[in-house]
Amino acid sequence: MFRFPAMKAVVCLFLVAVSSALASIQLHPLSDEFINEINSKQSTWKAGRNFDVNVPTSYLKKLVGVLETPTTDLLPQKQHASLEAVDIPEFFDARDEWPQCDSVSEIRDQAACGSCWAFGAVEAMSDRICIHSGGKSQVSVSAEDLLTCCSACGYGCDGGYLDAAWSYWVKSGIVTGGPYHTTTGCRAYTIAPCAHHVVSTRPACSSGGGTPACVRECDAGTRKSYEQELTFGKTAYKVPKDVAQIQLEIMTNGPVEAAFSVYADFLSYKKCSFTLIYRMATSSGVYQHTTGSYEGGHAIRILGWGVEKNTPYWLVANSWNTDWGDNGYFKILRGSNHVGIEGSVIAGIPKL
Questions:
Q1: CATH number for the segment(s) 29-351
Q2: Where are the domains of the chain?
C-alpha cells in the first residue's frame, strides 16, 4: 500500500530540485530571451540588441579592463570645501558648458582591446587641458601612448589601473594623439575601429593581437617631436565618494574618469527608437543593474548629470564607438554608488 503523505513529500522535493536546476541555467547574455527578461524586471531603461548573438563572451569580457589598484598606489583624495555656498543645478552637461572644447563631445573607440582604463583617462585629460586653457589648447591626449608606454599602469590591452594612469601623466607625461589613422597629434591609436555592434559600417572585430609596442617617437608623417608633444598633469587625485563632491569637481574642472562593475545586462543598453528635439530630453533611459553575471570592471568618462522621470542619473561617455548605446553615451543611476560608479572617481589638473 502506498503512503500518500510520503509520496507527496518525494514529489515536492523533486519539483524543488527541478526548479533549482532551471533557476541555475543562465540565459545567454546576448539572447533575445535575456533582453526580454531585462525589460520585464525594470522600467527605468530599455534593453535592446547592440551585439550580435554570436559574439563570443570572451570578446565581451575583453571590452572591460579595470584592475583594482593596490592600496600602496592609491592617489590622495581631494575634497572641495564649503559645499553649502555652491548652487548645484539639477541638470549639467559639459558639452553645453564648454562648447568650444571639441574633445568634450568626442566618443572614441577602444576597438578590440581592454584599454578602457586608458581611454577614460586621456579623454578627461584632453577635456581639462582645453577647459583650463580657456579653449586655447585643443589637443587629444594619446590613448596609444598611455596604453603602451606606462609599464606601471597594468597589462595594456589586458587591463590597467586608473590611479597609475593619472600618476603617469603627472610624472612622465603623455603625448598628443587621436583616433586611428589621424595625424593631428603625435601618436594615433593603432588598433583599427571595428564593428562591435549589429548596426555598423565598420569592419568586423578580430580577437585582437595583443598590446602594441611602446614607441617613444611621433608617427611617421606628423613632423612632430615626441618631447615637444608631451602633455603633463600638475596634480592627480581621487574624488570623494560623495555626489555633491563629484558634481562640484565636474562643474569646476571638467569631466572625470570613473570605474564601475559591468554586468551582462549593461551590454544591451540601447538607444530608444524615437528622438526628441532637445538633447537633455533624448533618452535611452537610466541604467540600473537588473540581472546577469558580473563581466568585469569598466572605465568611462562622466560629463554631467540630470533627472529623468524622477530618477537621478549621471551622464556618461563610453568608448565602444557611437554605434553602442545612445550614440556612445549612457545614463546610470546617481546617488547610491550603484555598481560602484561613485566610488572610483579620478581626476587631475593639467600643467599648462
A1: 3.90.70.10
A2: 29-351
